[in-house]
Design brief:
alpha/beta, Rossmann fold, three-stranded parallel beta sheet, 5 helices, 38% helix, globular
Length: 104
């Protein structure tokens, strides 16, 4: 799930070789909602058949991603890349995606 133009986001996934790892891709362009609007999360969750209470949203912007997750009733884990943070720092935090396996 990403804010952005569908064609651009899908080409980035393809270029990275990650496309086969994603069953569902939701862009703000394709669904008509952009984070922090929680409806984009609900579109993604519905597409995957997952209830908000069973999901964990991993994002790098606590102000936008975290706000969307909170509003959608989804737990949030912040990928801290060492950039300045607007607002409060999330409780769940990793500095590398490889740390997620230990958190789950």
């Amino acid at each position: 799930m990403t804010n952005g133009i569908d064609r651009v986001q899908r080409s980035r996934l393809a270029a990275s070789g990650l496309t086969p790892l994603f069953e569902t891709v939701v862009t703000s362009q394709s669904c008509g909602y952009a984070k922090p609007d929680p409806r984009i999360l609900h579109v993604a969750l519905d597409a995957m058949g997952v209830a908000p209470r069973h999901a964990l949203y991993v994002g790098d912007d606590p102000a936008v991603d975290g706000a969307a997750a909170r509003a959608a009733g989804v737990r949030f884990c912040w990928v801290d890349r060492g950039l300045p943070v607007r607002g409060r720092r999330p409780r769940r935090r990793v500095t590398r995606l490889s740390e997620l396996a230990d958190r789950l």
